[in-house]
Amino acid sequence: MQLRLDALEAHLAKGLAGLYVVYGDEHLLAQEACDRIRATARAAGFTDRSVFTVERGFDWSSLLGASQSMSLFGDRQLVELRIPSGKPGKEGADALKALAAAVNDDVLTMITLPRLDAATQKSGWFTALAEAGVALKIDPVERAQLPNWVGQRLAAQGQRVAAGEEGRRALAFIAERVEGNLLAAHQEIQKLGLLYPAGSLSFEQVQDAVLNVARYDVFKLNEAMLAGDVGRLTRMLDGLRGEGEAAVLVLWAVVEEVRTLLRIKRGVAAGKPLAMLVRENRVWGPRERLIGPALSRVTEGALEKALALAARLDRQVKGLSGGTPGNHRNDPPPDPWNGLFELAMTVASPAKAAPVPPPRPRTSAVAPGRRPG
């Protein structure tokens, strides 16, 4: 069966299943879910633990042997299988089907996988596992949900932000500083628990304690652009530049969104239903609810001009031409990142595209590590 993460505690309170599949790319939440399953398993007598990681040349027979054998000391076993690639291959698929068909009361199996696409979730091996046990999908915490998530985590350690506007500012401040980095958010919340006693936290206390540990994702840039969130858009472009992201990749992501908007805009003008156009253009998740307001802000002509600017920027970032000041009024700015800001602003805030200042190069240090993909 499929189970939501927020229903895990209630499920475990009723008793353990024989098989769990935990899948998703939000590593903190996946780790916490696995820890809860392990703790419940230990309390139920599953004290012998074996861990297998699928790599090239993995011996699937060793997994099947462990899942079917009894411990030398008669202890119940917890068998963990980690498949980092999410692709078990043909031999692995057959082994996983056999594993699902042979659930043993004295063996609890926990399989961890990354985020799976729709086709993989419909595959024979995954369907067999989900039907034999519990499939726990770990969804990411979206940007709009992050302040509430932070508030819930603070409450769990006996703290809360001040009431009213000050509290909303404090939660928004934390969310901005840890965007795209849920593990960092967890660490910052724990730090607040160490620095201050239980009770209410002021905005100043939060501001003094929380570092800037955001990891900016080029593919989340489009959400800020569609939402018309100019402040977030500016921070993200500034952050991507400071992290050394390639301007050509950022340009590609923004242009793809502009092209999608133009196709949908033309489709609506031709009388096609918006819902059908959204599906045809593969607009899912948070972008699906943002696409309507974005379409109402921009005209077809503005989107066409944006693509013309994008073509000039493309030549610029590839070193084929260059924004020398005063060349031509349609030339992109001398700094391609300013041009990227101008391009994104044609969607985010068409009326303010000219007056809003472009992002500046970062001077502060950026947290090490790659952004989640």
TrEMBL record:
CDD domains: HLD_clamp_pol_III_delta (cd18138). It catalyses: DNA(n) + a 2'-deoxyribonucleoside 5'-triphosphate = DNA(n+1) + diphosphate. It is an enzyme of class 2 (transferase). Residues 20-132 form the DNA polymerase III delta N-terminal domain. One of its GO terms (biological process) is DNA-templated DNA replication. It holds the Pfam family DNA_pol3_delta. Residues 219-318 form the DNA polymerase III subunit delta C-terminal domain. GO terms for molecular function: DNA binding; DNA-directed DNA polymerase activity. One of its GO terms (cellular component) is DNA polymerase III complex. Its EC number is 2.7.7.7. Residues 362-373 have a biased composition (Low complexity). Residues 318-373 are annotated as: Disordered. Keywords: DNA replication, DNA-directed DNA polymerase, Nucleotidyltransferase, Transferase. Belongs to the DNA polymerase HolA subunit family. This is DNA polymerase III subunit delta. It comes from Paraburkholderia terricola.
